[in-house]
Design goal:
The chain is α/β, with parallel strands linked by helices. The chain is built from twelve helices and seven strands. Strands 3-2-1-4-5-7-6 form a seven-stranded mixed β-sheet, with helices on both faces. This is S-adenosyl-L-methionine-dependent methyltransferase.
Amino acid sequence: MSFQTCGEKLTTMSEQQNGNLQDQPWAELKLPELLFTDPVRGVHADVENEWDLLRQSACQIAAGRALWKHVVHDPLAELLAGEAFLRGFYEKIKKDRLNNAQEVSGVILAIRTMWFDAKIEAALDSFYGGGAQVVILGAGMDARAYRLNCLKESDVFEVDFAEVLQMKTTIIQAATESTNYCQHAMTTAKSLHSVAADITDHDWLQKLQKSGFIPKKNTVWVLEGILYYLSHSNAMEVLKIIADSCTIAHTVLLADFMNKPSITLSSSLFHFYSDWPDHLLPSLGFSDVKLSQIGDPDAHFGLLHDPLNLFNKLRSLPRSLQTHPDDGTPCCRLYLVKASGSPN
C-alpha cells in the first residue's frame, strides 16, 4: 500500500484540472454498501435525530469532501458523512450544475481542504529535528491522520465532543473490517490521540496534555472551520492559549476566519469574526502572519479561473468594504491564515 505526500497529491490534481467547474468529472451518486450495515446506519441515525446543527456540520463537511473526490483525496469521507448528508449535498451540486452556477456548492470547502493539506505539510517541513505534534481542534470528521503521508513522523491529537469522536471511532472500526476500506482505515500518522473536550470549557488544554501533548514540542495547530462557531470571548481565549505557546516552542497556527458580513449567513451558528486577522494575531504574540483569500495564487488550485467568480470579484475590492459597490450585497470573505512564532 502506498500513500501520496500532500505535495504529490496537489501536483496530480493540478494536472487534472482545467479551471471549468462544469467540466469536472462529477459522477452519479453511488452510496457504498458499508453505509447500510447496522453499526454504521445506527450511528448516523443518532447524528440525524440527536445531534445539534453544530455537531451535524461535521458530517456535512465530510459530505462535501466526498463529493469533491476528483480533487480531494479522502476515501473515508463518504462513510463519515452518511447517506442523508451525501444525498443533500449531491442535490445542491446537481442544481448548481443545471443552473450553470459560477460557484458550484462545495468549491470553497474543497479549496479550504487543499489549502490546509498543503500548509500542514509545509509547516512540518519547516521544523528541524522531527518530533512534531499536530493538534486539530474541533476535529469533527477530519480524516487527515488516515490520508496524509506527511504526518508519518507526527503525533496527531483530535479534539472534539466525546460523542463526535465516538461516532468516528465506530465508523473507522467498521471500515477496518471491510475489504473495500480496510487499507484507508490505517493511520498514516505516527500516533493518533482522541481528546474528548469542549474547547469552550477552560480545561481543554489540561485534557490535551493528559492525552500526551507536550507543550515544549514543535506543534502545528489546525483550526479549520471552527473559530466562527465560537463566541468572541471563547475564540479569543483559544487564540491566546495557542499564541502563548510561541514562547516555549516553535508554533504554527493554521486557521480560517470569517469577516463580519459572513457571519450574517447563519446568525444562529456563526458568531466570531475578524475583518483583519493579520492584524489581530500579531497583537496576540505571533511574529509572522500570512493571509490568503479564496482565489489567491495559493488558494484556488485551478478551480477559480473565471474572473466573474464571486471570490475573484471580491479580491479586487478593498478589504475594508462591507458591501459590494455594484449591487450592495455583503462582501462575505473567508480568510485562510498561517501564523507562526518561536522562542528564538
